[in-house]
Amino acid sequence: MRGVWSGCVSRVLSISKEHVRWLVLFSALFLVIGLNSILTSLTKEELKVSRPLFGYIVQGVRKTGKHELAVEVSNTQQRLSELLATLKASGNSYPSQTVSEPSSSSSQTSGSHYPNTNAKQIATPAPMVSLPDVVVSTDVHIFYYLWWGTPNDDGKWLHWDHPYLPHYNKKLRDKFKTGSHTPPDDIGSTYYPDAGLYSSSTVGTMQRQLSDMMKIGAGVAVVSWYPPKLADDHGQPVDVLVPQLLDVAGQVGMKIAFHVEPYDGRDVSNMRQNIEYVINTYGTHPAVYKKNGKLVFYVYDSYLIKASQWAMLLKAENNSPSCVRNTEFDGIFYGLVVDRKHMTDVVAAGFDGFYTYFAANGFSYGSTSSHWPSLQQFAEDNGLDFVPSVGPGYDDSRVRPWNAKNIHSRRSGNYFSDMFQHAIDAAPAAISITSYNEWHEGTQIEPTQSKEGYPAFPHPTFYLEKALEMVKLFRPAVTQDNGVFAQVAPRTSQAAVDHKSRFVPTRTFAAQTMGEDGGSRATNLREQRDSEYAGYLEQRQKFLVESARTRSTAQSEPPRRW
Question: What per-residue confidence (pLDDT) applies to 247?
Answer without folding.
Answer: 97
